[in-house]
Amino acid sequence: MNPRRTAFDVLRDVTGQGAYANLALAKRLATAGLDARDAAFVTELVAGTSRLLGTYDLIIETASGRALNTLQPAVVDLLRLLCHQALSMSVPGRAAVASTVELARQTVGQRVTGLVNAVGRRVTKRSLAEWTARLAEGADRMGALAIRHHHPRWIVESYAELLDEEELVAALDANNEAPRPTLVVRPGLAERAELDPAVPTRWSPYGAVLDGIPASIPAVREGRAGVQDEGSQLVALALARAEAPQGPWLDLCAGPGGKAALLAGLAAERGTTLLANEVSIHRAELVERALAVFPEGTTRVIRDDGRSPVELQEHGPFARIMVDAPCSGLGALRRRPESRWRRQPSDLAELTPLQTDLLTTAVGLCTPGGVIAYVTCSPHLVETVGIVEAVAARTSLDVLDAPALLDEVPGIAAGPFVQFWPHRHATDAMFLALMRVPGPHQ
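Structure (tokenized):
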């Protein structure tokens, strides 16, 4: 199949059906019959277009003189792909326009080719830098940063609460760079040397960064290693390092299973077991798959509602609990290129009650003197510090010095919490708080 047609089909899946770009891309590439070069072209075209979608939409509106919602959705996607080829992939403007006009004829019909040709010619008269400069004219500071660095304004504002302007720009730019895959071994099942030629991660003793396809590594194919951001590895490691009484461990929100697999290996090294809970059927199946490599009796997967647990109560209490709470994902924008344009500020109002309930549940399930890790893949204060401080005040939790348990990692701000950043640590912007439940083991 023509690579541009494949990219168009994937983008329609993403924008029209709400698919995740990486999953839709993998599904389409599996049946497209493309060689490695064309597959790489499609991957960049889809990921890059998804990442800069909002910027390209402003360019299309300006170049067409029409509001986006007055154009056919398929035509908008064609023009988005044209923008990325001409403005970010060094495809000559004439070639980008001509190929998109032909693709429009094939997929939408002859009637739209004139519009696509006219808008495409206007788009290619300027570079991306020239377009963003024009679009930012007259905007205030936050608006200009949002346009120049390809983020919705509200996300820029949320980052600005935590970073000065120099770091803010660096963080936004880091979100626009696709990360290389980071691998992780399952403790007790594989050694990091088995991940060769991947390069060891800077701080996690279990990780390695790969230039290539993870499935090319035998340990990954066999399930003895997996793909996991170094920040996710470090928050699990911090929970394992904290002083706590002996007893079983719990991953309260375990899907899709990456942290659960690392915790299972760490728990086994300490002579205990891991219970992984995941309420979603599909995600619970992913957790079971991730934990299937561990010896029988060392792990168990259940499906209970973390807000009002029943089965969990029967298995507790737990000495260490991971609460990897559902969140906005604002810290994983490097890996989820479409998500910045999907999320809305209103999502936080839906997520924060759930996050509060899950952390409160963990308090009730934890052994006296036990430790809870509250983790989000978001740096937003409403989802992080706000949740922890509210629950800690209500339950008398003792907030621990989490950075002290990761003292080998530089660039962590002063205070009891850990906040990773892609521009400082080359990780997702993971947040970690560690808390001890009052009891005799304090």
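The chain is about 50% helix and 10% strand. The first strand starts at residue 182 and ends at 185.
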